[in-house]
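User: Assemble these into one structure.

Assistant: Restating your components, then the assembled model:
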Amino acid sequence: MTLVTEASPPRRPAGRGPGGARPRRVVDHGAWFLVLPALIPILVLSVGPLLYGILLAFTDAQSGRTEPTEWIGALNFRDLLHDTLFWESFRIGLVWAVGVTVPQFLLALGLALLLNQDLRLRWLARALAIIPWAMPEVVVGIMWRLVYNPDAGILNETLRDVGLGGGRDWLSGLATALPAVIVVGVWAGMPQTTVALLAGLQNTPRELHEAAAVDGASAWRRFRTVTWPALRPIALAITALNLIWNFNSFALVYVLTSGGPGGRTRLPMLFAYEEAFRYGQFGYAAAMGCVMVAVISIALAVFLAGRLRGGDDA
Amino acid sequence: MRTSRPARVGQYTALLAYLAFLALPFLWLVSTAFKPPRELGSLHPTWIPNDPTLANFRQAFDEQPLLHAALNSLLAALAAAVVAVLIATPMAYVVARRRTRLTKAVTGWVVVSQAFPFVLLIIPLFLVLKDLRMINSVPGLVLVYVVWALPFALWMLAGYVRAVPPELEEAAAVDGAGRVRTLVSVTAPLLAPGIVATALFAFITAWNEFFFALVLLKTPQKQTLPVVLTHFIGAEGVADLGPLAAAAFLATLPSLVVFAIIQRRITGGMLTGAVKS
């Protein structure tokens, strides 16, 4: 029993072509009635606030101020352009997002390939994968603080045991803080990525694999010519999502370092959170959010363009 | 396919390394939770407590309103899960069965909403909830959680609806069942496991959520478990390790149990949504 077969998605019935049998009788004029209960909250509490948030970015909105909020045009954005601290956090956000996503993808791919083999212990891997997946991010942060603890942590003790010194304060060292939190990010997101890739591997036609093996293709060659082409769409999708999610992440690093030491791990979301809810600069923080959305959208567009050029049909 | 012996050894070594990477931090958390203060202060910490104790758990409950926080979390997560699934299910049905401009827009929004940095959403919601005097209230948080849970609930549920063959519904229609009757007696029972899985998943994500709760809940009596956990870490980042570990361990247990139950269905539902749409 593998992770794959047990995690297999419900299948669409075969032989239902596009435009084929559609139960018009079941969904027709009642559709609006079915849609409204979800559509209204979405519009009122999600799309609405989002537009409001974008508007706020063009105002001097602050918390706890008595004068009325004024429209100040692009002033926030002009200030943001010169805010070196913000761009530093932006750079850190990019390093963090790539630094987590890439190793995580490679590790998850390795694990997925292993779990796709006929190995014992696969059940254990599945059981363990639940831990990072189900854990509250706050607890993940706390847990790794315990691991990294300079005196009572197991990391330094292990390093001492193997004679690599120790006593390092990983999370508060200027050079080690960002790599240390990146390791935690990799740990926390590995199961999802692994399971997604496993599902992709499941789509690889097994016969093709076997044929290639019979023809004497090396493992690497089989991976390149058979496995990867089948895996590519899901690999791209999960990578894009991971990059975005990681760029926007908050809780993990908030608990681990609160953005320290000296702002070395201050992700854009932490910066915006402080600006909004510690200093009360709502307009300015909203402008940061807008810049983040803009950059993410551009990145997504570039990514999708690349995907189209790659000729994927998914 | 035959795999050579050295390759097998390599595979198992790699697998064991992965398993250690996944398991060891968690084992360390558990170990720390059961250690008496003397061992926590030791310069040579051990994996297994020499003198295991439950004192950390008692101290954790003494130091912070953990029970109250757990109750708040439970309330917020339950309400959010039930409401989100109730309003998402009918829409998911339409989205899965029909391709109109509306359903395309909804699907697009589901995808795009994954890319929002939450500051852009929480600042206006904070202002609105303040006007409604719903800051520092669990119902206010539930409102935010419902909206936040809607995209993935729609996504998962639509996947489950697609897994129900439309032919079944047509057959019922041919047999003379009305629309409501078909939905209730044919579709709903087949959809029920998916609905439960989606609700449980929404529950877990709300139970684990931190950012919105941190922003919206101000007083310890109103705060949810993840927020209260951070109070164990002092202002200078100094923490009383034992109670911190004990409380963190307790906060994880419900998630682990529920997740272990629904994990298969979630991966199924999420992936159907992600891959097959």
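Chain B has a mean pLDDT of 87.
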